[in-house]
Specification:
Elements (H helix, E strand, L loop, with lengths): L25 H5 L1 H7 L2 H26 L20 H12 L14 H30 L2 H4 L2 E3 L3 E6 L2 E10 L5 E15 L5 E9 L9 E2 L5 E6 L11 H4 L5 E10 L5 E9 L3 E3 L1 E3 L3 E3 L4 E3 L7 E3 L7 H10 L1
Parallel strand pairs: 2-10
Antiparallel strand pairs: 1-3, 2-3, 3-7, 4-5, 4-6, 4-8, 8-9, 11-14, 12-13
């Protein structure tokens, strides 16, 4: 079938865009620092460079209004800022003042009160801009988004029997030797449904139990693990059979969250499985082997599955057949 629109991509990106905010866009300015952190690198650099150009233009404007640009080599004339006679020189003076480099070639004179006021304003504004710039750079470089790329999910989920029970399973793995502390996994079923009152819910979210009551959702993610959701009477897949799977439309969103051991920051990795990526009657190939003094993980078989005998009936049908028998 033609690939339909996902709610969450395989790489974890959510396909949701907010539009028609109206007057609510002012909320972004009320939390300016978070807004700058959420922007891409190119927009951050553009905003800060634009701020520098505006401040340099103010120094150039003072020199232009005072006539300093027309008398660059007049020794008898005292300009506002020495050796500022065009925009590049005004920009260099701003950078020297902002970064406290102080080459000594350009300096402000005492006969320019408007320049002194602008100097005080630049000192105050420059401290704020530097704080925003350093804070944004530090947070963006230390964000654990790249760490999430080294957390793997199997390309497909499988449905087969485990311990005599029909289960939905998928595999997760950690490519790094550093561990994920307090790793926890959650699953959401995204499916449209209609309530008994006639209300249509286009993207209804339902929780899939992956061991919340037993603690199986708390992972010790040292080697690849197979996450299991038991299909029972409380599961939304209670009526799902191999035949009905072909006509269903749903999406399973998987959220793996934990603390990065090296940085102590919280990391979250996401993926999703549509009905086309759920294989009925399959099981994952083993990837662990015992070597000389250690366990070896073969990630070339991480996504591989093989067919196993599995009843094509739903759990509901199997329970009805047992009750009739």
């Amino acid at each position: 079938r033609r690939e339909r629109q996902r709610f969450v991509d395989k790489n974890g990106r959510c396909n949701v865009q907010h539009g028609n905010l109206g007057g609510e866009t002012s909320r972004y300015l009320s939390d300016l620092f978070t807004t700058l952190v959420d922007l891409k690198w190119r927009w951050n650099l553009f905003i800060f460079i634009l701020t520098w150009l505006v401040m340099a233009s103010m120094w150039w404007g003072i020199a232009y209004l005072r006539g300093d640009l027309y008398r660059p080599h007049d020794d008898a004339y005292s300009p506002c800022v020495a050796n500022v006679y065009n925009f590049p020189s005004a920009f260099l003076f701003f950078i020297e003042t902002e970064a406290t480099i102080g080459y000594g070639h350009r300096y402000i004179t005492e006969r320019c009160p408007e320049g002194i006021v602008l100097f005080l304003f630049q000192s105050l504004l420059g401290s704020i801009v530097d704080a925003f710039l350093i804070g944004c750079m530090f947070i963006k470089m230390s964000q654990p988004k790249k760490r999430a790329e080294t957390l793997m999910f199997s390309r497909a989920a499988v449905i087969s029997q485990r311990d005599g029970k029909l289960c939905l399973m998928f595999r997760v793995g950690n490519l790094r030797n550093s561990h994920m502390v307090s790793a926890q996994i959650r699953c959401k079923l995204i499916k449209s449904r209609q309530t008994p009152e006639g209300e249509f819910l286009p993207l209804d979210q339902c929780e899939l139990d992956v061991g919340f009551g037993t603690g199986a959702d708390q992972l010790f993610l040292v080697s690849p693990l197979t996450i299991c959701h038991e299909i029972n009477s409380k599961s939304p897949f209670f009526c799902l059979s191999q035949r009905s799977l072909r006509s269903e439309q749903f999406e399973i969103v998987v959220i793996l969250e934990g603390i990065v051991e090296t940085t102590g920051m919280t990391c979250q990795a996401r993926t999703s499985y549509t009905e086309d990526e759920v294989l009925w009657g399959h099981r994952f190939l083993p990837v662990m082997s015992l070597e000389d003094g250690f366990f070896r993980v073969d990630y070339s078989q991480f996504h591989a599955t093989f067919e196993v005998p599995t009843p094509p009936y739903s759990v509901k049908e199997q329970e009805e057949n047992l009750s009739l028998a």
